[in-house]
Amino acid sequence: MVALSLLTITALLGSALANPVPAASNSSDLDISTSELDKRQAAEGVYLLNCGNAANPNIYHPVVYCPDISNCGRIPASNNLCYGPTWWETSTGSCRFPTGVTFTWNIVANAQQYGDREVVGTGNNGRPRAFVIRKDVKGVLYRDGQGYDCRAIYYAV
Question: Could you say which residues form the signal peptide (predicted)?
């Protein structure tokens, strides 16, 4: 009987892993289209976002790590999320993720005067490779659990 129960549990677990329940998708709400995300090559990246509503688009400011930046249009896992300052355009900023990794950035003070996708700074997560930070289009990357739109202000790849 115990062997049968273990076989049943193993079969169910295998089925669940092979056919996971998809995460809630906000793709219909995205301003950053799937084709725009597809243009960003599959590489790790970081988004610097402003989240809020129409009355106040700057309620909070998450930093989101994406193992694959071309597939990052959903609410991030908690270990891929930390919170930044009120303004991104500081001489140096940083954010420590729950994993212990700290992402630091330098964005020029007048970055919002640059054109979309232009290089406005650099970033680092303590690894040998530096990140290039570009101004984003301020499209909605995802809608959080409180109904706030989280808009991409900058992205680093």
Answer: 1-18
